[in-house]
């Protein structure tokens, strides 16, 4: 992103009041020519991994070559994730809003020539409507975006997150100005209470009530009080907090500064997962720039209010996302949860009153202050207000970040926004809530996505991971996956969590090998309940959910594993065989070359076969076949070796 | 390339932070990224500086997965095992790499060339399954793509 040292270029400017901020915003807007073309390159993780950097470099070069007059020369801008990651690298041309997808460096010249010089769209880079095949030139008309309500993600994709001026021009810190000029701390807390905002990090605790609790604790214990942001994003299938921190760090800072004002806090902390170096960099830059403008640090916007922030990088422990473990980790210790006899708002970081909220919760605060609690409460459904950001992944056509009003149905999200499962069949299940959540079957597709409805069907909102599964995904395997994850991440303090999860996982390991009885299924259920009851923190307390919900909705699939030694999805290694379809095989030998066991033989250009005695079910042949000739069958073929062993 | 680049000065790292317990993890992180592991001498110096007892620093260094008390390889191969990558066959890639490199996930090859690791969601699920080799993302990774990449590491 912007290479120049932005922070330095406005150190001479310190915003001395809310009016000064408004003035600055107007100046910044006035400097902009609305007709000036802008080439926006998505620099979210997905697009970067798909080659966005090369695309940007090629566009720069093509612009240089085109020798456009400096007056009309378009700006190139890089932004955070635009959400439609499966179509990346994305390039958007403003002011027309032309949306180019799957752009390659080699497309740069044509984009510059055809669009920027001649003013025509490059047809082949446009998104095509999957039904009609018609090109859809503008982003806002694409079905993926049309059904969304992008508020928290509103600035992401249009501002360069490394230049605070862009965010200020787009309205950042106006809520802070409003608070400092016309709202008492009490007004702020009651506004957040009235909005109905609930925590976006997992449990859905009402944010306003938490802040109120902290005010009460301060009455008793006095200050200091701390404000903390949970950016640990532990759910292994979710990345929305990462994209918010990367794409609009100022929204998070502004939310925290507003809370600090309401609570009289002078110091805050942002705890970021260590795998997110770009989020850390952008937050760091954002803080530095906000400080130099007088939006963070001493005498914010010329007032008496002083508040500063520090980033703590996580060090690779899922349990540190839990509130008390997170505090312990900030204190410099191993992040083990503490018993919550006393609530964190009273005794949190360093034993002081503390408000901990999730990244997305913080980013909602400025929206509530700017637009009012009533406006916010009008979005969504009564007990789940506002919007929620989901990372929609798995077996779905449109993989990416989506933001919808609470209460939108599962099927709307997956089919209308997500474009359904590749191949067109209905989805089999959706996993929500990550390792603490559950799998919801297709039969419940109309369930509204809000805190209470998801709990009612045995899953939960969690932080916003939404993983779509199709018929090729095995529920036993998915339950095992989450158990293995949690078993590894358990801090080991509670015996039911430490030993119980291992026992559960071992039982599922057996199931995946076809071993087990219906009695074992019942044991899983009772052991699951025991783990829930006997664990100190919610890691153990919710760990059995993925197993229990899959058992509830997909019991037959479990039984097929143990009664018929069959994995209907064709995933569990010991219950499947790979076979080559003699009709479809062209004898290209790709699989034979890659097979680590040299189990595949046959003459060149003739159908090949797999020696079941040698095969270890690694699946490399299946993955490498270009003709769909490798088939998975279950129950497994009986190999000669095992036949001999049995006799 | 040696495991500890000589230009890094441990004292310089230590001076970056005040001598307080709350900076223990910061110090370990900086040492880890400079040396690719926490050398025992460094751990002692950190303890002297922060006043944290060695046993406590040791338990912190072993609790968090990003710290390693053993030298890591020159190259890092990280297989994403986030949920999306798991569904698209991430596990299969780990098995495959374990066979090829003759180490288990989390271990380093005997010649200190490669450390094989697993991570959870890297934020590019659209490209799953994903393998990251140093800073290079392999999208829709397959056994064939990994073969090529490993060869290029060995040839460097
Ligand atoms: C094991 C465990 C892991 C958690 N991980 C996270 C996380 O990564 N991010 C997060 O915001 N909350 C996480 N939470 C929830 C936090 O404990 C806490 O409820 C939340 O950060 C509060 O913020 P909110 O009210 O704004 O959601 C986790 C909880 C548990 C028990
Ligand atoms: S429930 Fe599990 S993770 Fe939580 S404190 Fe107990 S042992 Fe640790
Ligand atoms: S990273 Fe570009 S759209 Fe998500
Ligand atoms: S699960 Fe692998 S990148 Fe998200």
Q: What layout of secondary structure does this protein have?
A:
The complex is a heterodimer of chains A (647) and B (156).
Chain A: H1 6-9, H2 18-31, E1 38-42, H3 45-49, H4 52-66, E2 75-79, E3 91-94, E4 98-100, H5 108-117, E5 127-128, E6 135-136, H6 143-146, H7 164-169, H8 174-182, H9 185-195, H10 207-221, E7 226-231, H11 240-247, H12 249-263, E8 267-272, H13 277-293, E9 308-313, H14 323-330, E10 354-358, H15 359-371, H16 373-377, E11 380-381, E12 384-385, E13 387-394, E14 400-405, H17 410-417, E15 429-432, E16 438-441, H18 451-456, E17 465-469, H19 475-489, H20 495-512, H21 518-533, H22 538-542, H23 545-553, H24 555-563, E18 577-580, H25 590-594, E19 600-601, E20 609-610, H26 620-624, E21 630-633, H27 640-646
Parallel strand pairs in A: 1-2, 7-8, 7-10, 8-9, 13-17
Antiparallel strand pairs in A: 1-3, 3-4, 5-6, 11-12, 13-14, 15-16, 15-17, 18-21, 19-20
Helix pairs in contact in A: 2-8, 4-5, 8-12, 8-15, 9-10, 9-12, 11-12, 11-13, 12-15, 19-20, 20-21, 21-23
Chain B: H1 10-14, H2 24-35, H3 40-50, H4 54-63, E1 75-80, H5 83-87, H6 90-101, E2 114-119, E3 131-133, E4 136-138, H7 143-155
Parallel strand pairs in B: 1-2
Antiparallel strand pairs in B: 1-3, 3-4
Helix pairs in contact in B: 2-3
The complex binds flavin mononucleotide, iron/sulfur cluster and FE2/S2 (inorganic) cluster (2 copies).
Flavin mononucleotide (FMN) binds next to strand 10 and helix 22 of chain A.
